[in-house]
Amino acid sequence: MKRVGISGFGTVGRRVADAVEMQEDMKLKGVAKTTQSATASKAQHNFGLYGIKDSHMQDMKSSGLSVEGNLRDLCRVSDVIVDCSPSGIGAQNKPTYQDMDVKVIYQGGEDVEVADISYNSYSLENDGINAENIKSARVVSCNTTGLSRLVKSINSSYNVERVSATLIRRGGDPGEISRGPINDIVPTMEIPSHHSSDLNEMIPEVEVSTRAVKSPTTSMHMHSIEIEVENEVNASNIKELLDSYNRICVIPSKYEEVRSPADLRELSRMEDRTFGSIWENTVWGDSVSVSGNYISLFQGIHQRSIVVPENIDAIRYLMGESISDSIMETDSCLNMGSLFR
Amino acid sequence: MKRVGISGFGTVGRRVADAVEMQEDMKLKGVAKTTQSATASKAQHNFGLYGIKDSHMQDMKSSGLSVEGNLRDLCRVSDVIVDCSPSGIGAQNKPTYQDMDVKVIYQGGEDVEVADISYNSYSLENDGINAENIKSARVVSCNTTGLSRLVKSINSSYNVERVSATLIRRGGDPGEISRGPINDIVPTMEIPSHHSSDLNEMIPEVEVSTRAVKSPTTSMHMHSIEIEVENEVNASNIKELLDSYNRICVIPSKYEEVRSPADLRELSRMEDRTFGSIWENTVWGDSVSVSGNYISLFQGIHQRSIVVPENIDAIRYLMGESISDSIMETDSCLNMGSLFR
Question: Which string of DSSP letters, residue by residue, matches A317-333?
Answer without folding.
Answer: HHTT--HHHHHHHHHHH
